[in-house]
Design a protein that fits this description.
It contains ten helices and 19 strands. It is α+β, with helices and mostly antiparallel strands. Pfam families: ATPgrasp_YheCD (PF14398).
Length: 389
């Protein structure tokens, strides 16, 4: 008997789905593990008949087909909102179907997440100084403490709307560069403090920013870099670091996001090029892995059970590890782009294995009752599954 896993997505313009390639791979791995994966959006739900016109992948014909299905026992939320209309749709859906069980869940905005993480004494030393943007005066005071700051939308993703401000020596002016709300690279411009809010007002984001201490991210060629770590629950319900890889931004960009033109590189290669010795690389990597697990575990105590988080990290020239951001709906393409296909496949497979773990817990018999094996057990070894496509 197979079990169902519904993937909750959101249509882009033209009824396109943003992660269709990922959903195809998820469906193929699901079939291997006895899980029927289907994709749906709030627009595909027939409220009157309590059914879903879902999208399913047929491996034999290598094609997507539509079919009517009932609501699944568990839902993997991959919604990226991209606009107020989509946000309203998903909010209405969650409010109407409150009894659905979610494999993943949205976290709070960057400011709330920062404050919650600050409560943990083991995580706090790794957090850049951050404030909620209120006024030009506050921004000027922050710039006096930190020669470089980043301004980020509280709820932004993919590098959209991120601004880098650098105080110019012997001047009251700043070098402003970044990406606009459409991810376009903004050329470096000399501005005064009074001009900064005016620029932000043009994007309609000025009241929704955080201001963060800038961590030195430039490589020798001037490009910025950081690290994307993927932390996931495994088939036993335990947090594991699935992998971590470096990202290097394109020329003149203040962000390293892959969707914004960045390139992927292995963590070890990037660290070794900066810090040289194997021992130093090993120490930094261990610190980063410990931090990633602590972040995932701490946020779970605040928001409840969820299956994965993408954690953006920086390592400054002294080797100190900094936590830049947490993404509850992470991509895993960074591992494919580095050529680490074993980690990439594991990153796709783990949400399905964790879904099976949750369903097995639900189906576990109480004392004195007969066990019903409702959920199939994966039979392949991990090495066999990693060779699957």
């Amino acid at each position: 008997m197979s079990t169902k896993l519904g993937v909750l997505a959101m249509y882009m313009p033209g009824r396109k789905l943003e992660e269709l390639s990922f959903y195809r791979k998820l469906s193929i791995f699901g079939q291997k593990l006895g899980v029927d994966v289907f994709i749906f959006t709030p627009d595909d739900v027939d409220d009157n008949r309590m059914r879903i016109h879902a999208l399913s992948y047929n491996k034999a014909t290598r094609s997507w087909t539509r079919r009517w299905v009932g609501f699944p026992p568990i839902v993997y939320d991959r919604c990226r909102y991209h606009g107020a209309d989509n946000y309203r749709k998903i909010t209405r859906f969650r409010q109407k179907y409150t009894k659905l069980r979610y494999l993943s869940r949205p976290l709070a905005n960057k400011w709330i997440v920062y404050r919650l993480l600050s409560e943990n004494e083991n995580i706090a030393p790794h957090l850049p100084s951050t404030v909620h943007y209120r006024s030009r005066k506050q921004l000027e005071q922050f710039l006096k403490k930190h020669p470089v700051v980043y301004m980020k939308p509280k709820s932004g993703t993919g590098g959209r709307g991120i601004v880098r401000l650098q105080r110019l020596r012997g001047s009251r002016s700043y070098l402003m560069q970044g990406r606009d709300a459409e991810r376009r690279i903004l050329p470096a411009t000399k501005v005064t403090a009074a001009q900064i809010p005016v620029r932000l007002a043009g994007w309609g984001l000025q009241s929704k920013y955080i201001v963060q201490q800038g961590i030195p991210l430039e490589l020798k060629d001037g490009r910025v870099h950081d690290f994307r770590m993927l932390v996931q629950k495994d088939g036993q319900g335990k947090w594991q670091v699935t992998g971590c890889a470096g990202r290097i931004g394109p020329p003149f960009s203040v962000t390293s996001n892959l969707h914004g033109g960045g390139k992927a590189i292995s963590m070890e290669t990037l660290l070794k090029s900066r810090f040289g010795t194997e021992e130093r690389v090993k120490t930094i990597k261990e610190t980063a892995y410990t931090l990633g697990l602590r972040v995932a575990q701490h946020l779970e105590t605040k928001f409840g059970t969820y299956c994965e988080a993408g954690i953006d990290l920086a390592v400054d020239p002294s080797g100190h590890v900094w936590l830049l951001e947490v993404n509850p709906k992470p991509s895993r393409d960074v591992f494919r782009l580095t050529g680490d296909l074993q980690t990439y496949r594991k990153a796709i497979r783990r949400p399905i294995e964790f879904a099976l773990h949750l369903l097995q817990q639900k189906a576990a018999p109480k004392a004195g009752t007969r066990h019903l094996d409702l959920v199939p057990q994966p039979r392949q070894s991990e090495s066999q599954r990693d060779r699957s496509d």
